[in-house]
Structure to design on (99 residues):
């Protein structure tokens, strides 16, 4: 397993209609490093955003889609997505506020 720092774990936020609706219940979605564990994801979110306490982390591995270009076919890369649930007393994450 790679030596991951907390700033290497969270790659980018997931901005979809479903993930934006989950913000009301303090659930935030992120694409994370494929080797990251739930404990590492929890630690990274709490260190990157001030005043945030994580209650629960759910992860899912997303396989790459099959793409074709003429006769040649291949796959896009695999990704890992994490849905982070915050505690009721924690602050909101600011990067999602303007969306």
């Amino acid at each position: 397993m790679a030596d991951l720092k907390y700033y290497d774990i969270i790659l980018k936020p997931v901005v979809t209609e479903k993930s934006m609706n989950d913000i009301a219940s303090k659930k935030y979605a992120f694409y994370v490093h494929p080797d990251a564990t739930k404990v590492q994801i929890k630690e990274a979110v709490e260190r990157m955003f001030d005043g945030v306490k994580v209650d629960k982390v759910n992860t899912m591995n997303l396989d790459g889609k099959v793409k074709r270009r003429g006769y040649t076919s291949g796959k896009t890369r695999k990704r890992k997505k994490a849905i982070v649930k915050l505690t009721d007393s924690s602050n909101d994450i600011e990067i999602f506020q303007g969306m």
Observations:
- The domain at 6-96 is CATH 3.30.70.330 (Alpha-Beta Plaits).
